[in-house]
Amino acid sequence: MIRILLADDHTIVREGLKQILAETSDIVATGEAANGLQVLNAVRKNRYDLVILDIAMPGRGGLDVLKDLNKEYPALPVLMLSMYPEEQYAVRALKAGASGYLTKESAADELIAAIHKVTQGGKYISGMLAEKLASYLGDSSEKAPHELLSDREYQVMLMIAAGKTVSDIADELSLSVKTISTNRSRALQKMGMKNNAEFTYYAIKESLVG
Q: Ranges for the Response regulatory domain (predicted)?
């Protein structure tokens, strides 16, 4: 039996995932978590074969939690599940140690297939993502400007490009306005940009936002 910890801050998402898993004979959700601290506490207290982790956790984000899990439990596979399309976060997630990346729009059978593959020691990635990973392995001089950003800077840049204000982002991520402003400033500096409009233009040009 494959024991899974479901980590998502939305109860409705966790309930939906449990319904999908309930239709299988060899997979069971034995734990739930709504934020990063709960994830780490659950893994420290119980044994799981896989963590399904949302990337957009409040406070300490999913990528940060992923890195913590990899440090403490390097043999524990983590499957990232996100509302964001692959082109936004998948490469970062796999680089941080994820065993796979799925969007929340993925079909139920794809989720089950991914669970089986990663719990058997494999990686679950789409063909499009495989191409992106191959290009990512080039030297740093070939990297796109946004690949130089930290995970949080990148997240803030995308949210600003999607039309959200610094205050909106602070509320959504449960962080201070000052922290978001600092990440915005660093992202602008690293990318050689001056304002939010340049973020938006760049993100649209690179197909990072719709």
A: 3-119
